């Protein structure tokens, strides 16, 4: 039941991401770094639900674009600390704003009561642990 809606929302987000020169995973990474001033690659991967080796290309692209920085971890020279840059935060906020405007437009199709119930249910289901969803 949700698949057509989710697919359409993703399709609506892709041009927004393209206009800002990032991928969906790039946007996920920028959001993952938003609340973590510095994060190791392993901690970020866990936070966003990605394999740490699979996001390397995304991190390379974001770093090359000046949207994140990678600095050696003083506590572990094998690790790098990732941080979102000011430019990265501007891109993240711009993309988020465009996505939210589209979501608001879509939610305007619902009555106030339907919107409240939908958002409440979506928030509750989104907060479930992944293991609970998969089981």
From TrEMBL:
It comes from Trebonia kvetii. InterPro entries: HTH_MarR-typ, MarR/SlyA-like, WH-like_DNA-bd_sf, WH_DNA-bd_sf. One of its GO terms (biological process) is response to stress. One of its GO terms (molecular function) is DNA-binding transcription factor activity. This is MarR family transcriptional regulator. Residues 1-127 form the HTH marR-type domain. SUPFAM superfamilies: Winged helix' DNA-binding domain.
